[in-house]
TrEMBL record:
Cofactor descriptive note: Binds 1 FAD per subunit.
Protein name (record): Dihydrolipoyl dehydrogenase
Gene transcribed to yield this protein: lpdA
Lineage: Bacteria, Pseudomonadati, Pseudomonadota, Betaproteobacteria, Burkholderiales
Subcellular locations according to the entry: Cytoplasm
Naturally occurring in which organism (per UniProt): Comamonas jiangduensis
Keywords: Cytoplasm, FAD, Flavoprotein, NAD, Oxidoreductase, Redox-active center
């Protein structure tokens, strides 16, 4: 006999587990199905974000940053350490422990909120009276029926054509997080978020890192001034980034990986490395969902087609996160998950795509919200700009990290904030003030007149807002 639920959520990543919890909070009888497993075969909810994405990458970034500080910068503070060494296996074990804490935390939240969890792969079977029949293939096969279905199956790493991931020499983000020892030479294809973060981790630990990017511009989605500042810092660190390249051939038959490519000047080049990380984007994951059984519409990329409210072409079926249109960001998925749960309950869930923040957790960090200067120019919008360097910020000087700046873009007539762009220390935390300001349609003057703690990095935000009106106080 099938088990009946008001809401069945397929996937327990950021979009799925949050949707399940919010629906349960709103009084629904909820099931959540997820197939991720630990090496021991136990449930590992949290999706790509928790298992092979956001959380483990930040753990490795933190460990490698500590190592680099101890090796290069502690002496500036009068701290003598002697020779510093990194135990990579212990670093990976710490990362794995943090991942498990997050997995266990989600299972606890399900129990707390009375969400029934099923460990296995979910697929549509058919439409039935009152909803849809869902099969769960796991240790014990289950048949569920849900009145409302939320698909939150996430995304998978995109491989180079003809070059599948073996997670030994050719690595996805998953393999890049499980490297057992620091490679002497590491190659990465793709200078996006994953490429830059993983490149930063292994460069700090002593690898010679080369990043090959097909686009002619560095981080073209980022404000151009901010991207140039970041590139200058990465170059200084020794992270080699080549732009405008074309990959011609990848040979994995030897001990390592041999890449043949054409550089931006049209010259043939050869790069040999111990490992290759391919980070050229992600593709929506609908594998095994059996969408065709119920006529669920997919687009040419394999993404589930949804409207502005995350409704699919089927009544009572919704989809959120990486498996639908929009930025593939964990926090975007969470917001959609909450909104869908609230819409199912008859409320008016809301997601504002214009104020979703973006962060790259390199050193310096890069963060932004809203439109870039090049976008405003292309759209013919009249604007004012103001920026302030961390070089003139007292807290940044005390930290010993004065790289970068904060930049405001505001409407030339109304002064409404149109975009805020940052590169520098801890800007992943500073960007939230800008998001709040833009949600409330604030002006740059509003931020300029708010008292910020001294000394703090956030004073750079205030000063950049003052700079829009050309009245900075400390620069």
């Amino acid at each position: 006999m099938s088990k009946q639920f008001d809401v069945i959520v397929i996937g327990a990543g950021p979009g799925g587990y949050i949707a399940a919890i919010r629906a349960a909070q709103l009084g629904k009888n909820v099931a959540c199905i997820d197939a991720w497993s630990t090496t021991a075969g136990t449930p590992a909810p949290g999706g790509t974000c928790t298992n092979v994405g956001c959380i483990p990458s930040k753990a490795l970034l933190q460990s490698s940053e500590h190592f680099e500080h101890a090796k290069l910068h502690f002496a500036d503070h009068g701290i003598s350490t002697g020779e510093v060494a990194m135990d990579v296996s212990k670093m990976i074990a710490r990362k794995d422990a943090i991942v498990k804490q997050n997995n266990d935390g989600i299972l606890y939240l399900f129990k707390k909120n009375k969400v029934t969890f099923f460990h296995g792969t979910a697929s549509f079977v058919k439409a039935v009276d009152g909803g849809y029949e869902i099969r769960v293939a796991g240790k014990a096969e289950e048949t569920l029926v849900g009145a409302q279905i939320v698909v939150a199956t996430g995304s998978n790493a995109r491989a180079l054509p003809g070059l599948p991931f073996d997670e030994d020499k050719v690595l996805s983000n998953d393999g890049a997080l499980r490297v057992g020892a620091t490679p002497k030479k590491l190659a990465l294809i793709g200078a996006g978020v994953i490429g830059l973060e993983m490149g930063s981790v292994w460069r700090r630990l002593g690898a010679e890192v080369t990043v090959l990017e097909g686009a002619p511009a560095f981080l073209s989605a980022v404000d151009e001034q901010i991207a140039k500042e970041a590139k200058k810092s990465f170059d200084k660190q020794g992270l080699k980034i080549e732009l405008g390249v074309k990959i011609d051939n990848v040979d994995t038959s030897g001990a390592g990986v041999k890449l043949e490519y054409t550089n931006a000047k049209g010259e043939a080049q050869v790069l040999e490395a111990d490992k290759l990380v391919v980070s050229i984007g992600r593709v929506p994951n609908t594998n095994g969902l059996n969408a065709e059984a119920v006529g669920l519409q997919l687009d040419e990329r394999g993404a589930i087609v949804v409207d502005g409210d995350c409704k699919t072409n089927l009544p009572g079926v919704w989809a959120v996160g990486d498996v639908v249109r929009g930025p593939m960001l964990a926090h975007k998925a969470e917001e959609e998950g909450v909104a869908v749960a609230e819409r199912i309950a008859g409320q008016h869930g809301h997601v504002n795509f214009a104020t979703i923040p973006w962060v790259i957790y390199t050193n310096p960090e890069i963060a932004w919200v809203g439109r870039t200067e090049q976008q405003l120019k292309a759209d013919g919008v009249k604007y004012k700009a103001g920026s302030f360097p961390f070089l003139a910020n007292g807290r940044a000087r005390a930290l010993g990290d004065t790289t970068g700046m904060v930049k405001f873009l505001a409407d030339a007539e109304t002064d409404e904030i149109l975009g805020v762009h940052m590169v520098g220390p801890m800007v992943s935390e500073l960007i939230s003030e800008a998001v709040v300001a833009m949600e409330f349609k604030a002006s740059s003057e509003d931020i300029a007149r708010i008292c910020h703690a001294h000394p703090s990095l956030s004073e750079a935000t205030k000063e950049a807002a003052l700079a829009v009106d050309k009245r900075t106080l400390n620069f």
